[in-house]
Design goal:
The structure holds three protein chains of three kinds. By secondary structure, chain A is mainly α. Chain A contains four helices and two strands. Chain A has a two-stranded antiparallel ribbon. Chain C is mainly alpha-helical. Chain C is globular and about 70 Å long. The chains are: A mainly alpha, B mainly alpha, C mainly alpha. Chains in contact: A-B, A-C, B-C.
Chain lengths: 122, 158, 510
């Protein structure tokens, strides 16, 4: 069920990016898609009642520095969190570039409406 | 824009120091607690962005001007690359090889201390510098979109 | 000689951040930055040549897979690595002089090297999420480079490219998430192992579809091609050469081939899908190109058509493997596809460079406003003719051989109608390049172009270098060279899912 909602969010973002005429709304749609995917990734690693996957002093037992079984069985999956962090950084980069291109385009054309920005065709 | 009211200015001049300090804490303790280079860098940048919002762009630029921020950005990236390359050079071990941290820390008193993670804090500091500088740059460049700078803010990633 | 694999990524990345520091030193600093960037691309070329025919797995930070990230150099990677470094060295050499007309040259060099680093990363990565990260680095750099001139058309093209490119990237990320959820691994070898154990379920099939759409958007296959004819002409000429020559192949074709053949394993329906996409791109791209009046726009549409050949070759190979299991036939089709990929990288980047040279001399890209440039620009004319002869497929030049192999492969596998379409599209290609020759280099010289001069120096060197390659590429089919360069790449794809076993075995040895 949560996955279905996630997918719904993704589709809403895609709809917004494809249908809307305003450049800024297109950018917002793309970002909604991005966050839907991030949410999906986080939910993949989620575990009901899980703890944060950070090893503290009390989680270590044994001579080889092994973490306890309790920690392993109750912590959430840390990998998707790392992936989401990376994905957020990347989307931040492309968001900044998109916004700056939107601003420059507005300076040149005086509008955000993509139906009026049509110098290229063929 | 010459900034906001006196209340906002006073409060933000107190708070900005705390935010900056918190950012440094997040970066330095990144290997022990939640956080790290990226999160800390964002907080560092937000303290400057707060200054910019409260006092206006010119004031923020006096504190950290665009060329300096752009240099810091490059220095952060180069530091990160240098840490990674040191791993490559160190005994031909490997790229990103954690060349400071060997086995000697496990099971000693230094475990879970500030210095316990070898090169990871160094990379965190480099990334914090880079992210902080480049995020500040992004906001700065977007806020002054009259002059000619557009390809500037595509540099940040990592 | 074994070069540590991260060097291919780290050197351009670190240099990219070093350059802005140099360029603040004034005029001399800028010259140093240019020389440094050229040195980096040339040394990457040397290193790529030195690591031909090797198969190596590199574990970053000594974390063994599947825990850590690994880099894999196999036949396919090293073929692409070679193509990337050839095109980027030529484009960098060309831009040393061409980019004098723009102001922010240091930023240009920085973005250029970031793009090279991203592409090398895509090619070498053995980890599917890392592949996505490098894909994004290369794409973001290319979005910025397309909009580099900050004029009306360039911004518009850049925005269009960026929207479609970002949607493609998000599709890829979604697919990566689905794959991770279903197999519990991000390493391509381990994903492939898990899929071989369990077979495809609904989630993985959906992920496969998302991969095809995402990489298809990056490769500009025909239903997803709308951004390419705007984006490629708008960029500065060396960047057009990079984008058309190698970026769409690395981010699109290579990634698609790697995922389809090595990770998921090719199936009959997948093979048919690739064949249909390839044929659609070939025919539609060729028809659209014939009607163009803009020099670079014509070249961009022709890129879509040529990308179709590559996908057709790969798809035909996959189809034959999955349906008939005849590896000899399949490997011929795949050989044709990959050889065409390399050839197209060389001659299309040469064509874009010559278009840049013409544009710099005449100040226009409209075919109808030019004419009679053969006397004024003799070297440009000669190199452009060589490249046109290659792309059309006139015997001694490179394009002929790869098309011939594709036709033979199609006939051998009894796809006679495919062979007919290949020949037909070649004829369309002939028409469009005759049009280029006719309007640009032959005919009357217009009044306002009497004074133009040819651009000398680095631009000329870059063009002549690529033109020589165009003439010599046919030699890659000589058995000694073929068994070292092309055949390992073909074997990687025909062996398909044994990629995973090979990589795991290799990493045990390390």
């Amino acid at each position: 069920m949560p996955y279905a909602l996630c997918f719904l969010l993704f589709v809403i973002g895609l709809y917004c990016a494809v249908v809307k005429k305003n450049m800024v709304k297109i950018v917002i749609g793309i970002m909604v898609m991005e966050y839907a995917v991030n949410l999906f990734l986080i939910m993949l690693g989620y575990r009901l009642g899980g703890i944060a996957p950070i090893v503290g002093k009390e989680d270590v037992a044994g001579a080889g520095g092994q973490v306890t079984d309790l920690f392993v069985s109750s912590s959430v999956d840390p990998l998707p969190q790392a992936l989401v962090l990376t994905a957020i950084v990347i989307s931040l980069g492309s968001l900044a570039l998109m916004i700056s291109i939107c601003i420059r385009t507005y300076e040149k054309y005086g509008t955000f409406d993509i139906t009026e920005i049509r110098r290229l065709k063929g | 824009m010459k900034g906001m009211t006196i209340i906002v200015k006073t409060i933000s001049s107190w708070v900005k120091v705390l935010i900056f300090l918190f950012g440094i804490y997040i970066i330095l303790f990144g290997h022990l607690t939640p956080g790290g280079g990226f999160a800390g860098g964002v907080i560092l940048a937000s303290s400057y962005v707060l200054l910019m919002l409260a006092f206006g762009r010119e004031f923020a630029e006096e504190n950290l001007s665009l060329p300096v921020a752009s240099k810091l950005d490059c220095v952060g990236a180069l530091l990160f690359g240098a840490v990674a390359l040191c791993g490559l050079l160190y005994g031909a071990a490997g790229f990103f090889w954690n060349f400071i941290h060997q086995e000697y820390l496990v099971g000693t008193d230094y475990e879970f201390n500030l210095v316990s993670a070898g090169t990871i804090p160094l990379s965190n500091i480099a990334i914090g510098l880079k992210v902080g500088a480049s995020l500040f740059l992004v906001v700065l460049v977007l806020s002054m979109f009259r002059p000619d700078t557009s390809a500037e803010d595509s540099n940040e990633k990592e | 000689m074994s070069i540590p694999l991260p060097v291919f990524i780290a050197v351009p990345l670190v240099t990219a951040f070093l350059l802005p520091v140099f360029s603040s030193l004034g005029r001399k600093g800028k010259a140093v930055a240019t020389v440094l960037a050229n040195f980096v691309t040339v040394s990457l070329l040397v290193m790529a040549v030195a690591s031909i025919g090797q198969f190596r797995v590199y574990e970053v930070g000594k974390w063994s897979i599947p825990l850590g990230i690994n880099l894999v150099l196999d036949g396919l990677s090293s073929l692409l690595l070679l193509a990337i470094s050839v095109v980027s060295a030529a484009a960098m050499l060309f831009s040393a002089r061409y980019m004098e007309q723009y102001t922010a040259k240091a930023k240009y060099l920085c973005l250029f090297l970031l793009m090279v680093a991203g592409m090398n990363g895509v090619v070498l990565s053995g980890d599917i999420f890392n592949l996505f990260v490098f894909l994004e680095i290369a794409s973001i750099a290319s979005y910025a480079l397309v909009g580099f001139g900050c004029e009306h058309e360039e911004l518009e093209a850049s925005f269009k490219y960026m929207v479609l490119g970002s949607i493609g990237s998000i599709f890829v990320l979604f697919a990566v998430a689905l794959v991770y959820g279903n197999t519990g691994s991000l390493n391509m070898a381990y994903i492939s192992k898990a899929i071989q154990g369990s077979g495809l379920n609904a989630g993985l099939s959906f992920a496969m579809a998302l991969f095809v759409v995402g990489f298809g958007l990056k490769a500009a296959l025909v239903p997803f091609h709308a951004w390419l004819p705007d984006a490629h002409p708008s960029a500065p000429a060396p960047i057009s050469a990079m984008l058309s020559g190698i970026l769409i192949k690395t981010l699109g074709i290579y990634a698609l081939a790697r995922v389809v053949f090595n990770v998921f394993g090719v199936s009959v329906s997948m093979g048919w899908l690739l064949v249909v996409l390839g044929l659609l791109s070939m025919v539609a791209g060729a028809f659209l190109a014939i009607g163009q009046e803009d020099f670079k726009r014509l070249l961009a549409y022709s890129s879509i058509s040529q990308i179709g050949y590559v996908v057709l070759g790969l798809g035909l190979g996959g189809l034959i493997i999955a349906r008939d299991g005849n590896v000899a036939w399949a490997s011929l089709a795949i050989l044709g596809g990959l050889f065409h990929l390399v050839n197209h990288a060389v001659y299309k980047s040469l064509l874009f460079l010559t278009s840049g040279s013409v544009q710099m001399s005449t100040g226009t890209r409209q075919l109808k406003q030019m004419g009679g440039l053969a006397e004024k620009l003799p070297f440009t004319r000669a190199t452009c003719t060589v490249a046109s002869a290659s792309i059309v497929g006139i015997p001694p030049f490179s394009g002929f051989w790869s098309k011939l192999i594709l036709v033979i492969a199609a006939v051998q596998a009894h796809f006679y109608w495919v062979a007919a379409i290949i020949v037909f599209v070649s004829l369309c290609t002939l028409i469009m390049y005759l049009k280029v020759q006719r309007y640009v280099f032959l005919g009357e010289l217009p009044e306002n172009l009497q004074q133009i001069k040819e651009n000398k120096g680095s631009m000329l060197v870059a063009m002549v270098f690529l033109a020589c390659l165009c003439g010599l590429m046919g030699l890659l089919l000589v058995p000694a060279l073929r068994s070292n360069i092309l055949q390992p790449a073909v074997d990687v794809l025909t062996d398909g899912i044994s990629y995973s076993a090979n990589v795991i075995k290799m990493s045990m040895k390390v």
